[in-house]
Design a protein that fits this description.
6 helices, 180 residues
């Protein structure tokens, strides 16, 4: 029973980490970024382990296949929104941020459409790389107190935006093929 439920529990914990991340942006002390990064990295680690354990223990579920990518999108998009609110997304990073947010909304809608048509579209390798790059970029942008880290975050976010468009292309093609 433990093995069966742990991957889904990790996925759910990632979504439940969102309020903690949002609240951490309101902390006003020198440890604020560290607290935010710690919560965000915990959520990112659960992203790796939920899928890994589900495959290793052969307990993959419909819930996990559906909710895992949704949890990823929620954690990244909500944190990007807070970075905009705190002015850590600037002139150089607003365009890739908008690309990421719009793609995530589009793909979520397409997934829902495809599920209604009984079409399964598994997460691609490009999608996993995209999510990893988004998460690295978000961590670097949270730590934007250092110019080098801020630059790295901006570069990662631009690369993630390109991967976001590329990986979303397959979803769009699959969706177009299903239009009656």
């Amino acid at each position: 029973m433990f093995k069966k439920n742990l991957p889904n529990s990790l996925t759910i914990s990632r979504a439940l980490a969102i309020p903690a991340i949002i609240l951490s942006f309101y902390i006003e002390n020198r440890y604020a970024n560290l607290i935010t990064i710690s919560i965000f990295i915990f959520a990112c680690i659960t992203d790796f382990f939920d899928g890994y354990l589900a495959r290793a223990w052969k307990v993959q579920s419909k819930f996990g296949r559906l909710f895992d990518p949704i949890a990823d999108k929620l954690i990244v998009v909500s944190t990007i929104m807070m970075l905009v609110y705190k002015h850590k997304i600037n002139d150089y990073t607003i365009v890739p941020s908008v690309i990421v947010v719009c793609r995530e909304i589009l793909v979520s809608g397409l997934r829902e459409f495809l599920i209604a048509k009984n079409v399964s579209l598994p997460v691609s390798k490009a999608g996993k790389i995209k999510t990893f790059l988004q998460m690295v970029a978000v961590v670097a942008l949270i730590m934007n107190d250092y110019e080098t880290v801020q630059y790295m975050g901006a570069v990662c976010l631009w690369i993630a935006a390109v991967m976001t468009v590329w990986s979303g292309y397959n979803y769009v093609l699959a969706g177009i093929k299903q239009i009656d």
